[in-house]
Amino acid sequence: MRRFAWIACCALVLLAVFSVHADEGMWTFNTFPRQIVQQRYGFLPTDSWLDHVRLSSVRFNNGGSGSFVSPEGLVMTNHHVGSECIQELSTAGSDYMANGFYAPTRDKEAKCPSLELNVLMSIEDVTSAVNSGLTPQTEAPARLASQRAAMSRLEKECAEKTGLRCDVVILYEGGLFNLYRYKKYTDVRLVFAPEAEVAFYGGDPDNFNYPRYDLDVAFFRVYENSKPAKIADYLIWNTTDLKEKDLVFVSGNPGSTDRQKTLAQLEFFRDVQLPAVIQFLQSRLKLLRDFSARGAEQARVARDNIFSYENSLKVYVNQLAALRDPDFMARRAAVEKSLRDAVAADPKMQQEFGGAWSAISTAQKAYANFYLEYRVLRVAFPQSRLYGLAASLVRLSTELPKPNAERLREYRDSNLESLKQDLFSEAPVYPELEIVLLTQAFSEFSAALGSDNPLVQQVLAGRTPAQAAADHVNDTKLASVPERKKLFDGGRSAVDSSTDTMIQLARLVDPPYRQLRTRFENEVQAVERANGSLLAKALFAAKGTSLYPEATFTLRLSFGAVSGYSDEGRPRRWYTTLVGAYELHAGISPYNLPKRWLDNRKNVNLDTPYNFVSTPDITGGNSGSPILNQQGELVGIVFDGNIQSIANSFVYTEEKARTVSVHAAAIVETLRKIYGAEGLVRELKISPAR
Asked: Which of 66, 193, 292, 657 could join 644 via S-S bond, C-beta 3.0 to 4.6 A?
């Protein structure tokens, strides 16, 4: 009873400090706050409503979301989520990124080399099983190792029992562990994609801005046993009834947020991590733009990477600006101080929670000492696809002989099929681009470790970074899928004895990478997990799981209203129309409508709503999420947020931050009137106007 009393005291403080406001929250489906929705909007989602939306929602393994839109396995997502496949299927003679793609019949649908789609079938709380045997006295590294072993065991048992993909998901900084069971689709085929010029109309200048005029959509189909998958739960479309102030929902897979991080963690982001990431992206963009300028084929090859880096750079620059804002950091400091003071005022609270902040702060200082070196080995080298393949082969040969529970987390049994799909993908390799990217990685490697470092000297072997990169790329055979399969099948002995230049490089780099990874896991990750879970206990005391967890690239449901906003005194209407795209057409990128758009202008209803804004809480990873009305009908597809939404990574606000979506009416209008995709439209189930 005494323990309950001080937890209740803590709860009162935390309710004041960490209250969820307005339409805030990316909620797990098993803790969705349906009563809040009813109180705010007069609608109570039922269990069957939530189950239908969950089973209609899809996760793309390359970092996006989507939804089933027909009983024949048809999936809709964003063009920029599907662009990896579209780019991989393209050639110099058939550039589907530039010219678009449409398969009018099933036999014309093109199989993606490496896409995997997941559907969340069920969720189970396994916190007790993951923490079995742990005590408050268990040291952080031992705690982390024990939890990982338990997670791998649970995942393996689940996969063997159900045949599903099973992932233990860490929530509330380790305060809760849920087992997510997914149905997995690996035969994924492209059905329709518009031209990149219209999917990303306005280019980087308009990215994260509004008003927008983008047809950022693509359609795929999932197959089972070489036949279109039969889907029981899919979304009906509503193209006519959406209006301002309507309640809408977003079902998708937000990647990550940092709203519950300590001040010390945010300061690390501000002072160490984000500046390094921004410098990395800026250098890659310059490389890719220079490479693109070499010719038309180089421009085609680099285009998707340039888009990705431009998008990421704008996000991180604006996140850094938020963290450098003294007022913003002062507000975060005040929130943390309120909780610290409450904990310090009670001896029992102080004993359990009081050391968490200083422990996390110490971990950030330790990480700053080796962050750049670790980042080069973890991020810069794998920018080369050939190096990434070599590193996978080397690590697989080392990890697979170990017991499942002792492997590096990504090599657990439950994830092996996904790893092998990527390893044996027929996706093209571009040697000229590989040399450019590996040259930069070697240069950064030398700068981070020092040119006199023994490992740097071994890797470069007296060559310039450019010479070393050319030698490794030109002399490797890993672009060949049969060669990769031979090395994988041969196991440790084949990899250890291989004379392939890229395998040799990976063998050199892997030991120091592992050393730094172990250091990160023991000195940083384990400390953050152990102490973050202590702080999470306070949140549980306040609200249990009614306080949503940080985003984890797992399925979440958010809600809000269709709503315009005011931007520096300028009113922003809640929707744009197709006529706006024509009015912006300048004949040059990024405002260059495709020829078929110009030729068919007379056929198009130019008053059709095109893009629109609403208040649901989203972040990166939500791209491609369906946006639904309270009937569970699809009214649009999320493709972006406005510039004000970027700071939502750290704190949610609905005053100006908006989710930006493509209206369902514009998708149907353009499919019919511009692309002549009547077969595709007929497959969609469109509800009559009410």
From this structure: 657
